[in-house]
Amino acid sequence: MGRRGVPRRHGRRRRQRAPRRAPQRRRRPRTGEVHPVTSAELAPWIDKLWEAASRGDEYAAVDSAIGLLDGGTDPEALLLDVIAPVQGRVGREWAANRISVAQEHTATAINERVIAATAHHPAVRAAVAAAEPAGHVAVACIDGEWHALPARLLAEVLRLRGWRVDYLGAQVPTEHLITHLHRYGPQAVALSSSIATRLPTAHAAITACQATGTPVIAGGAAFGPDGRYAFKLGADAWAPDARAASERLLGEPLEHPAAPHQPIDDLPHLGDQEYTLIARSARQLVREVMAGLADRFPAMADYTPEQRRHTAEDVAHIVDFLGVALYVDDSALFTGFMGWTGGILTARGVPARSLLPALDLLGERLDDFPRAARLIGDAHAMLAGADPGWFARMGESPHHASNVHFPGPGKTA
Ligand code: B12
Protein backbone atom coordinates (compact mmCIF):
# COMPACT_ATOMS: atom_id res chain seq x y z
CA MET A 1 0.00 0.00 0.00
CA GLY A 2 1.33 3.44 -0.85
CA ARG A 3 1.98 6.01 1.82
CA ARG A 4 1.61 9.19 -0.12
CA GLY A 5 0.42 12.06 1.99
CA VAL A 6 2.31 10.91 5.05
CA PRO A 7 4.85 13.64 5.66
CA ARG A 8 8.20 12.13 6.46
CA ARG A 9 11.08 14.43 7.08
CA HIS A 10 14.78 13.74 7.27
CA GLY A 11 16.84 15.16 10.02
CA ARG A 12 13.74 16.44 11.75
CA ARG A 13 15.34 15.97 15.09
CA ARG A 14 18.29 18.01 14.04
CA ARG A 15 16.13 20.71 12.53
CA GLN A 16 14.58 21.38 15.92
CA ARG A 17 17.97 22.31 17.33
CA ALA A 18 19.80 25.55 16.76
CA PRO A 19 22.34 26.68 15.98
CA ARG A 20 23.71 24.04 13.61
CA ARG A 21 27.30 23.03 13.66
CA ALA A 22 29.42 23.32 10.54
CA PRO A 23 28.51 20.46 8.18
CA GLN A 24 31.92 18.75 8.13
CA ARG A 25 31.96 18.50 11.88
CA ARG A 26 28.57 16.92 12.33
CA ARG A 27 28.05 13.34 13.36
CA ARG A 28 31.64 12.28 13.29
CA PRO A 29 32.33 9.29 15.48
CA ARG A 30 33.18 10.50 18.93
CA THR A 31 35.04 7.69 20.60
CA GLY A 32 37.71 10.02 21.91
CA GLU A 33 40.35 8.04 20.00
CA VAL A 34 39.69 9.23 16.48
CA HIS A 35 41.84 11.94 14.97
CA PRO A 36 41.50 13.76 11.68
CA VAL A 37 44.11 13.08 9.05
CA THR A 38 45.41 15.06 6.12
CA SER A 39 45.62 13.73 2.60
CA ALA A 40 49.42 13.92 2.84
CA GLU A 41 49.31 11.64 5.89
CA LEU A 42 47.05 9.18 4.06
CA ALA A 43 48.99 9.07 0.78
CA PRO A 44 51.46 6.38 1.91
CA TRP A 45 48.55 4.25 3.11
CA ILE A 46 46.90 4.48 -0.29
CA ASP A 47 50.12 3.15 -1.80
CA LYS A 48 50.37 0.45 0.86
CA LEU A 49 46.81 -0.76 0.34
CA TRP A 50 47.16 -0.54 -3.43
CA GLU A 51 50.33 -2.61 -3.38
CA ALA A 52 48.77 -5.27 -1.15
CA ALA A 53 45.51 -5.41 -3.14
CA SER A 54 47.21 -5.47 -6.54
CA ARG A 55 49.52 -8.33 -5.57
CA GLY A 56 46.55 -10.24 -4.12
CA ASP A 57 47.74 -10.13 -0.52
CA GLU A 58 44.51 -9.99 1.45
CA TYR A 59 46.17 -10.27 4.86
CA ALA A 60 48.53 -7.36 4.20
CA ALA A 61 45.63 -5.28 2.85
CA VAL A 62 43.42 -5.94 5.88
CA ASP A 63 46.37 -5.39 8.23
CA SER A 64 47.08 -1.96 6.75
CA ALA A 65 43.45 -0.88 7.26
CA ILE A 66 43.29 -2.31 10.78
CA GLY A 67 46.60 -0.62 11.57
CA LEU A 68 45.17 2.74 10.59
CA LEU A 69 42.08 2.21 12.75
CA ASP A 70 44.19 0.98 15.67
CA GLY A 71 46.15 4.22 15.36
CA GLY A 72 42.98 6.25 15.69
CA THR A 73 42.38 7.25 12.07
CA ASP A 74 38.86 8.45 11.35
CA PRO A 75 37.08 5.41 9.83
CA GLU A 76 35.32 7.63 7.31
CA ALA A 77 38.69 8.86 6.07
CA LEU A 78 39.85 5.26 5.75
CA LEU A 79 36.78 4.37 3.69
CA LEU A 80 36.67 7.43 1.47
CA ASP A 81 40.23 8.74 1.36
CA VAL A 82 42.11 5.43 1.27
CA ILE A 83 39.91 2.54 0.10
CA ALA A 84 37.89 4.52 -2.48
CA PRO A 85 40.97 6.03 -4.17
CA VAL A 86 42.62 2.61 -4.25
CA GLN A 87 39.54 1.23 -5.97
CA GLY A 88 39.57 4.12 -8.43
CA ARG A 89 43.22 3.28 -9.12
CA VAL A 90 42.24 -0.32 -9.80
CA GLY A 91 39.99 0.97 -12.60
CA ARG A 92 42.61 3.34 -14.01
CA GLU A 93 45.37 0.73 -13.98
CA TRP A 94 43.13 -1.71 -15.80
CA ALA A 95 42.09 0.94 -18.32
CA ALA A 96 45.73 1.77 -19.01
CA ASN A 97 46.40 -1.95 -19.57
CA ARG A 98 48.85 -2.10 -16.66
CA ILE A 99 46.90 -4.79 -14.80
CA SER A 100 44.83 -7.67 -16.16
CA VAL A 101 41.09 -8.22 -15.74
CA ALA A 102 41.94 -11.02 -13.27
CA GLN A 103 44.12 -8.65 -11.21
CA GLU A 104 41.32 -6.06 -11.27
CA HIS A 105 38.87 -8.67 -9.96
CA THR A 106 41.33 -9.82 -7.29
CA ALA A 107 42.06 -6.30 -6.08
CA THR A 108 38.34 -5.47 -5.97
CA ALA A 109 37.58 -8.64 -4.00
CA ILE A 110 40.32 -7.72 -1.53
CA ASN A 111 39.02 -4.19 -1.15
CA GLU A 112 35.59 -5.63 -0.36
CA ARG A 113 37.19 -7.72 2.38
CA VAL A 114 38.98 -4.65 3.69
CA ILE A 115 35.68 -2.75 3.92
CA ALA A 116 34.12 -5.70 5.76
CA ALA A 117 37.03 -5.91 8.20
CA THR A 118 36.84 -2.17 8.76
CA ALA A 119 33.11 -2.30 9.50
CA HIS A 120 33.71 -4.88 12.22
CA HIS A 121 36.68 -3.21 13.87
CA PRO A 122 35.87 -2.39 17.54
CA ALA A 123 36.60 1.32 17.04
CA VAL A 124 34.13 1.46 14.15
CA ARG A 125 31.46 -0.50 16.01
CA ALA A 126 31.92 1.89 18.94
CA ALA A 127 31.72 4.91 16.65
CA VAL A 128 28.51 3.65 15.06
CA ALA A 129 27.00 2.94 18.47
CA ALA A 130 27.99 6.41 19.72
CA ALA A 131 26.75 8.35 16.68
CA GLU A 132 23.69 10.50 17.19
CA PRO A 133 20.69 8.72 15.57
CA ALA A 134 19.94 10.29 12.20
CA GLY A 135 17.13 8.22 10.72
CA HIS A 136 16.53 5.17 8.58
CA VAL A 137 17.64 4.74 5.00
CA ALA A 138 17.79 1.86 2.52
CA VAL A 139 20.83 1.57 0.22
CA ALA A 140 20.47 -0.59 -2.86
CA CYS A 141 21.99 -1.12 -6.28
CA ILE A 142 19.72 -0.97 -9.29
CA ASP A 143 18.61 -4.29 -10.75
CA GLY A 144 21.39 -5.62 -13.00
CA GLU A 145 24.01 -3.44 -11.31
CA TRP A 146 26.94 -5.49 -10.02
CA HIS A 147 29.02 -2.58 -8.73
CA ALA A 148 28.20 -3.02 -5.07
CA LEU A 149 31.42 -1.60 -3.65
CA PRO A 150 30.47 2.09 -4.11
CA ALA A 151 27.08 1.42 -2.48
CA ARG A 152 28.76 -0.44 0.34
CA LEU A 153 31.07 2.52 1.00
CA LEU A 154 28.02 4.77 1.12
CA ALA A 155 26.23 2.42 3.54
CA GLU A 156 29.21 2.31 5.91
CA VAL A 157 29.60 6.09 5.88
CA LEU A 158 25.90 6.60 6.58
CA ARG A 159 26.14 4.17 9.51
CA LEU A 160 29.06 6.13 10.90
CA ARG A 161 26.91 9.25 10.64
CA GLY A 162 24.16 7.69 12.73
CA TRP A 163 21.83 6.29 10.09
CA ARG A 164 20.16 2.97 10.50
CA VAL A 165 21.01 1.47 7.12
CA ASP A 166 19.29 -1.37 5.32
CA TYR A 167 22.03 -2.40 2.90
CA LEU A 168 20.48 -4.50 0.15
CA GLY A 169 23.63 -4.97 -1.97
CA ALA A 170 24.06 -5.55 -5.70
CA GLN A 171 21.35 -5.93 -8.35
CA VAL A 172 18.20 -5.59 -6.31
CA PRO A 173 15.10 -6.45 -8.34
CA THR A 174 12.80 -3.43 -8.19
CA GLU A 175 9.78 -5.42 -6.99
CA HIS A 176 11.75 -6.73 -4.01
CA LEU A 177 13.02 -3.25 -3.21
CA ILE A 178 9.44 -2.00 -3.21
CA THR A 179 8.36 -4.83 -0.90
CA HIS A 180 11.19 -3.83 1.42
CA LEU A 181 10.08 -0.19 1.44
CA HIS A 182 6.51 -1.18 2.28
CA ARG A 183 7.60 -3.55 5.01
CA TYR A 184 10.28 -1.47 6.75
CA GLY A 185 9.40 2.10 5.78
CA PRO A 186 12.80 3.80 5.55
CA GLN A 187 12.67 7.58 5.28
CA ALA A 188 14.57 7.53 2.02
CA VAL A 189 16.10 5.13 -0.44
CA ALA A 190 19.62 5.61 -1.81
CA LEU A 191 19.92 4.03 -5.26
CA SER A 192 23.37 3.31 -6.60
CA SER A 193 24.39 2.67 -10.19
CA SER A 194 27.84 2.71 -11.76
CA ILE A 195 27.13 1.54 -15.29
CA ALA A 196 25.17 3.88 -17.51
CA THR A 197 23.37 1.08 -19.35
CA ARG A 198 21.32 0.53 -16.17
CA LEU A 199 19.78 4.02 -16.41
CA PRO A 200 16.45 2.93 -17.93
CA THR A 201 16.11 0.38 -15.11
CA ALA A 202 17.16 3.06 -12.63
CA HIS A 203 14.38 5.26 -13.95
CA ALA A 204 11.78 2.54 -13.39
CA ALA A 205 13.15 1.95 -9.87
CA ILE A 206 13.13 5.66 -8.99
CA THR A 207 9.55 6.01 -10.21
CA ALA A 208 8.41 2.88 -8.35
CA CYS A 209 10.07 3.92 -5.07
CA GLN A 210 8.51 7.36 -5.29
CA ALA A 211 5.10 5.80 -5.85
CA THR A 212 5.43 4.31 -2.34
CA GLY A 213 5.94 7.83 -0.97
CA THR A 214 9.66 7.23 -0.38
CA PRO A 215 11.99 9.93 -1.69
CA VAL A 216 14.99 8.79 -3.70
CA ILE A 217 18.57 9.98 -3.57
CA ALA A 218 20.54 8.64 -6.52
CA GLY A 219 24.27 8.35 -6.97
CA GLY A 220 27.14 6.48 -8.54
CA ALA A 221 29.08 7.07 -11.75
CA ALA A 222 26.15 6.10 -14.01
CA PHE A 223 24.28 9.28 -13.12
CA GLY A 224 27.03 11.47 -14.58
CA PRO A 225 29.71 13.54 -12.83
CA ASP A 226 27.22 16.35 -12.20
CA GLY A 227 24.23 14.08 -11.52
CA ARG A 228 22.49 15.20 -14.69
CA TYR A 229 20.90 11.82 -15.33
CA ALA A 230 19.66 11.50 -11.76
CA PHE A 231 17.74 14.73 -12.18
CA LYS A 232 16.55 13.81 -15.69
CA LEU A 233 15.15 10.58 -14.30
CA GLY A 234 13.30 12.46 -11.57
CA ALA A 235 15.38 11.53 -8.50
CA ASP A 236 14.64 13.75 -5.51
CA ALA A 237 18.34 14.30 -4.81
CA TRP A 238 21.80 13.35 -6.02
CA ALA A 239 25.24 13.55 -4.49
CA PRO A 240 28.69 12.98 -5.99
CA ASP A 241 30.13 10.92 -3.14
CA ALA A 242 29.30 9.38 0.19
CA ARG A 243 30.32 12.43 2.23
CA ALA A 244 28.12 14.72 0.17
CA ALA A 245 25.33 12.14 0.30
CA SER A 246 25.34 12.06 4.09
CA GLU A 247 25.44 15.85 4.25
CA ARG A 248 22.53 16.00 1.82
CA LEU A 249 20.46 13.53 3.82
CA LEU A 250 21.14 15.43 7.03
CA GLY A 251 20.40 18.77 5.40
CA GLU A 252 17.16 20.12 3.97
CA PRO A 253 14.44 17.44 3.97
CA LEU A 254 14.03 15.72 0.63
CA GLU A 255 10.91 16.89 -1.10
CA HIS A 256 7.96 14.58 -0.85
CA PRO A 257 8.14 12.64 -4.10
CA ALA A 258 6.09 13.66 -7.11
CA ALA A 259 2.70 12.04 -7.66
CA PRO A 260 2.87 8.57 -9.22
CA HIS A 261 3.66 8.91 -12.87
CA GLN A 262 5.02 7.01 -15.85
CA PRO A 263 8.67 7.24 -16.94
CA ILE A 264 7.58 8.85 -20.22
CA ASP A 265 6.22 11.82 -18.23
CA ASP A 266 9.83 12.68 -17.28
CA LEU A 267 11.21 12.00 -20.76
CA PRO A 268 8.67 13.01 -23.42
CA HIS A 269 11.16 12.29 -26.24
CA LEU A 270 10.59 8.58 -25.56
CA GLY A 271 7.34 9.07 -27.48
CA ASP A 272 9.29 8.74 -30.74
CA GLN A 273 9.85 5.04 -29.87
CA GLU A 274 13.48 5.15 -31.03
CA TYR A 275 14.79 3.84 -27.72
CA THR A 276 12.14 1.13 -27.47
CA LEU A 277 12.61 -0.11 -31.01
CA ILE A 278 16.40 -0.15 -30.80
CA ALA A 279 16.42 -1.81 -27.38
CA ARG A 280 14.05 -4.49 -28.65
CA SER A 281 16.04 -5.20 -31.79
CA ALA A 282 19.49 -4.95 -30.15
CA ARG A 283 20.42 -8.60 -30.75
CA GLN A 284 19.43 -8.40 -34.38
CA LEU A 285 21.41 -5.18 -34.80
CA VAL A 286 24.51 -6.80 -33.31
CA ARG A 287 24.18 -9.75 -35.70
CA GLU A 288 23.81 -7.41 -38.69
CA VAL A 289 26.81 -5.28 -37.71
CA MET A 290 28.91 -8.42 -37.18
CA ALA A 291 27.89 -9.72 -40.63
CA GLY A 292 28.73 -6.34 -42.17
CA LEU A 293 32.13 -6.27 -40.47
CA ALA A 294 32.87 -9.76 -41.79
CA ASP A 295 32.01 -8.58 -45.32
CA ARG A 296 34.18 -5.49 -45.07
CA PHE A 297 37.09 -7.12 -43.26
CA PRO A 298 37.92 -10.49 -44.79
CA ALA A 299 40.62 -10.86 -42.08
CA MET A 300 37.79 -11.52 -39.63
CA ALA A 301 37.44 -14.96 -41.22
CA ASP A 302 40.67 -15.85 -39.37
CA TYR A 303 39.35 -14.72 -35.99
CA THR A 304 39.20 -17.42 -33.34
CA PRO A 305 35.73 -18.12 -31.89
CA GLU A 306 36.83 -16.24 -28.78
CA GLN A 307 37.87 -13.19 -30.79
CA ARG A 308 34.54 -13.23 -32.61
CA ARG A 309 32.70 -13.49 -29.31
CA HIS A 310 34.65 -10.59 -27.85
CA THR A 311 34.02 -8.43 -30.90
CA ALA A 312 30.30 -9.24 -30.73
CA GLU A 313 30.29 -8.31 -27.03
CA ASP A 314 31.86 -4.98 -27.88
CA VAL A 315 29.35 -4.29 -30.63
CA ALA A 316 26.62 -5.18 -28.13
CA HIS A 317 28.04 -2.58 -25.72
CA ILE A 318 28.00 0.04 -28.46
CA VAL A 319 24.35 -0.75 -29.19
CA ASP A 320 23.51 -0.69 -25.45
CA PHE A 321 25.16 2.69 -24.95
CA LEU A 322 23.47 4.07 -28.04
CA GLY A 323 20.16 2.90 -26.56
CA VAL A 324 20.76 4.52 -23.19
CA ALA A 325 21.92 7.77 -24.82
CA LEU A 326 18.64 7.79 -26.73
CA TYR A 327 16.80 7.08 -23.49
CA VAL A 328 18.23 10.13 -21.73
CA ASP A 329 18.49 12.04 -25.03
CA ASP A 330 22.09 13.01 -24.50
CA SER A 331 24.60 12.79 -27.30
CA ALA A 332 27.44 13.38 -24.81
CA LEU A 333 26.73 10.02 -23.17
CA PHE A 334 27.31 8.09 -26.39
CA THR A 335 30.20 10.26 -27.56
CA GLY A 336 31.82 9.97 -24.13
CA PHE A 337 31.46 6.20 -24.20
CA MET A 338 32.95 5.92 -27.68
CA GLY A 339 35.80 8.26 -26.72
CA TRP A 340 36.53 6.23 -23.61
CA THR A 341 36.44 3.02 -25.64
CA GLY A 342 38.84 4.66 -28.08
CA GLY A 343 41.12 5.35 -25.11
CA ILE A 344 40.96 1.76 -23.95
CA LEU A 345 41.86 0.56 -27.45
CA THR A 346 44.68 3.09 -27.77
CA ALA A 347 46.18 1.81 -24.51
CA ARG A 348 46.18 -1.65 -26.07
CA GLY A 349 47.80 -0.63 -29.34
CA VAL A 350 44.59 -0.60 -31.41
CA PRO A 351 43.78 2.73 -33.11
CA ALA A 352 40.53 4.31 -31.93
CA ARG A 353 39.56 4.83 -35.57
CA SER A 354 39.00 1.09 -35.88
CA LEU A 355 35.65 1.70 -34.19
CA LEU A 356 34.47 3.69 -37.22
CA PRO A 357 33.34 0.76 -39.44
CA ALA A 358 31.01 -0.53 -36.72
CA LEU A 359 29.54 2.94 -36.30
CA ASP A 360 29.11 3.25 -40.07
CA LEU A 361 27.27 -0.08 -40.22
CA LEU A 362 25.07 0.88 -37.31
CA GLY A 363 24.31 4.24 -38.94
CA GLU A 364 23.31 2.53 -42.18
CA ARG A 365 20.86 0.29 -40.35
CA LEU A 366 19.38 3.11 -38.31
CA ASP A 367 19.03 5.81 -40.95
CA ASP A 368 15.26 5.93 -40.31
CA PHE A 369 15.91 6.98 -36.70
CA PRO A 370 16.74 10.70 -36.67
CA ARG A 371 17.91 10.91 -33.06
CA ALA A 372 20.04 7.78 -33.35
CA ALA A 373 21.53 9.01 -36.62
CA ARG A 374 22.50 12.28 -34.93
CA LEU A 375 24.17 10.49 -32.01
CA ILE A 376 26.06 8.17 -34.35
CA GLY A 377 27.12 11.16 -36.48
CA ASP A 378 28.42 13.03 -33.40
CA ALA A 379 30.40 10.01 -32.21
CA HIS A 380 31.75 9.43 -35.72
CA ALA A 381 32.96 13.03 -35.98
CA MET A 382 34.63 12.77 -32.58
CA LEU A 383 36.41 9.50 -33.39
CA ALA A 384 37.52 10.70 -36.80
CA GLY A 385 38.76 14.05 -35.49
CA ALA A 386 40.54 13.44 -32.18
CA ASP A 387 44.25 12.80 -31.86
CA PRO A 388 45.69 9.68 -30.16
CA GLY A 389 46.91 11.72 -27.14
CA TRP A 390 43.34 12.72 -26.41
CA PHE A 391 42.23 9.08 -26.53
CA ALA A 392 44.99 8.11 -24.15
CA ARG A 393 43.64 10.65 -21.65
CA MET A 394 40.04 9.45 -22.15
CA GLY A 395 41.08 5.93 -21.27
CA GLU A 396 42.20 7.12 -17.86
CA SER A 397 38.88 8.84 -17.10
CA PRO A 398 36.61 6.85 -14.78
CA HIS A 399 33.38 8.33 -16.08
CA HIS A 400 33.19 6.99 -19.59
CA ALA A 401 33.80 3.38 -20.13
CA SER A 402 33.11 0.26 -22.05
CA ASN A 403 33.97 -3.31 -22.28
CA VAL A 404 37.46 -4.24 -23.32
CA HIS A 405 37.76 -6.24 -26.49
CA PHE A 406 36.86 -4.33 -29.62
CA PRO A 407 38.10 -4.94 -32.33
CA GLY A 408 41.72 -6.02 -32.86
CA PRO A 409 42.13 -9.77 -32.46
CA GLY A 410 44.24 -10.54 -29.44
CA LYS A 411 44.98 -6.89 -28.76
CA THR A 412 42.75 -6.40 -25.77
CA ALA A 413 42.13 -8.12 -22.47
C1 B12 B 1 35.35 -2.93 -9.65
C2 B12 B 1 34.62 -2.76 -10.96
C3 B12 B 1 33.80 -3.81 -11.39
C4 B12 B 1 33.51 -5.03 -10.54
C5 B12 B 1 32.45 -4.64 -9.48
C6 B12 B 1 32.61 -5.41 -8.18
C7 B12 B 1 31.88 -4.79 -7.04
N1 B12 B 1 31.59 -5.65 -6.08
O1 B12 B 1 31.59 -3.62 -6.97
C8 B12 B 1 33.00 -6.06 -11.60
C9 B12 B 1 34.16 -6.87 -12.08
C10 B12 B 1 31.87 -6.98 -11.18
C11 B12 B 1 32.59 -5.12 -12.73
C12 B12 B 1 31.75 -5.50 -13.75
C13 B12 B 1 31.45 -4.69 -14.84
N2 B12 B 1 31.92 -3.46 -15.08
CO1 B12 B 1 32.94 -2.49 -13.84
N3 B12 B 1 34.18 -1.40 -12.85
C14 B12 B 1 34.76 -1.58 -11.72
C15 B12 B 1 35.69 -0.38 -11.39
C16 B12 B 1 37.12 -0.81 -11.71
C17 B12 B 1 35.63 0.16 -9.98
C18 B12 B 1 34.22 0.58 -9.48
C19 B12 B 1 34.38 1.10 -8.08
O2 B12 B 1 34.21 0.38 -7.11
N4 B12 B 1 34.82 2.37 -7.98
C20 B12 B 1 35.24 3.03 -6.72
C21 B12 B 1 34.14 3.81 -6.05
C22 B12 B 1 34.70 4.49 -4.84
O3 B12 B 1 33.53 4.57 -6.99
P1 B12 B 1 32.60 5.84 -6.89
O4 B12 B 1 31.65 5.76 -8.03
O5 B12 B 1 33.47 7.04 -6.79
O6 B12 B 1 31.75 5.74 -5.52
C23 B12 B 1 31.33 6.91 -4.83
C24 B12 B 1 30.21 7.68 -5.52
O7 B12 B 1 29.84 7.19 -6.78
C25 B12 B 1 29.09 7.67 -4.52
N5 B12 B 1 27.98 6.76 -4.70
C26 B12 B 1 27.96 5.49 -5.09
N6 B12 B 1 26.71 5.00 -5.02
C27 B12 B 1 25.93 6.01 -4.56
C28 B12 B 1 24.56 6.05 -4.31
C29 B12 B 1 24.02 7.26 -3.84
C30 B12 B 1 22.56 7.30 -3.56
C31 B12 B 1 24.82 8.40 -3.67
C32 B12 B 1 24.21 9.67 -3.25
C33 B12 B 1 26.19 8.34 -3.91
C34 B12 B 1 26.72 7.14 -4.35
O8 B12 B 1 29.68 7.32 -3.27
C35 B12 B 1 30.78 6.44 -3.50
C36 B12 B 1 31.77 6.59 -2.36
O9 B12 B 1 32.13 7.95 -2.19
C37 B12 B 1 35.14 0.70 -12.39
C38 B12 B 1 36.17 1.70 -12.89
C39 B12 B 1 36.28 2.92 -12.01
N7 B12 B 1 37.35 3.63 -12.19
O10 B12 B 1 35.41 3.25 -11.24
C40 B12 B 1 34.53 -0.16 -13.50
C41 B12 B 1 33.34 0.33 -14.27
C42 B12 B 1 32.34 0.98 -13.34
N8 B12 B 1 32.77 -0.93 -14.91
C43 B12 B 1 32.38 -0.78 -16.06
C44 B12 B 1 31.87 -1.82 -16.88
C45 B12 B 1 31.60 -1.49 -18.32
C46 B12 B 1 31.64 -3.09 -16.36
C47 B12 B 1 31.09 -4.32 -17.11
C48 B12 B 1 30.05 -4.09 -18.19
C49 B12 B 1 32.29 -5.06 -17.69
C50 B12 B 1 32.01 -6.39 -18.38
N9 B12 B 1 32.83 -6.69 -19.31
O11 B12 B 1 31.11 -7.12 -18.08
C51 B12 B 1 30.53 -5.14 -15.94
C52 B12 B 1 29.09 -4.71 -15.65
C53 B12 B 1 28.47 -5.46 -14.57
C54 B12 B 1 27.12 -4.90 -14.24
N10 B12 B 1 26.09 -5.34 -14.92
O12 B12 B 1 27.01 -4.10 -13.37
C55 B12 B 1 32.54 0.64 -16.52
C56 B12 B 1 31.22 1.42 -16.53
C57 B12 B 1 30.98 2.08 -17.88
C58 B12 B 1 29.98 3.16 -17.91
N11 B12 B 1 30.34 4.28 -18.48
O13 B12 B 1 28.87 3.01 -17.49
C59 B12 B 1 33.64 1.19 -15.55
C60 B12 B 1 33.60 2.69 -15.30
C61 B12 B 1 35.04 0.92 -16.14
C62 B12 B 1 35.23 -0.36 -16.85
N12 B12 B 1 35.05 -0.41 -18.12
O14 B12 B 1 35.56 -1.37 -16.25
N13 B12 B 1 33.16 -3.89 -12.58
Automatic annotation (TrEMBL):
PROSITE patterns hit by this protein: B12_BINDING
Biased composition (Basic residues): 1-29
Residue span(s) of domain B12-binding: 134-261
Keywords: Cobalt, Metal-binding
Pfam families the record matches: B12-binding, B12-binding_2
Region: Disordered, residue numbers: 1-36
Protein name: Cobalamin-dependent protein
Species of provenance: Actinomadura parmotrematis
Lineage: Bacteria, Bacillati, Actinomycetota, Actinomycetes, Streptosporangiales
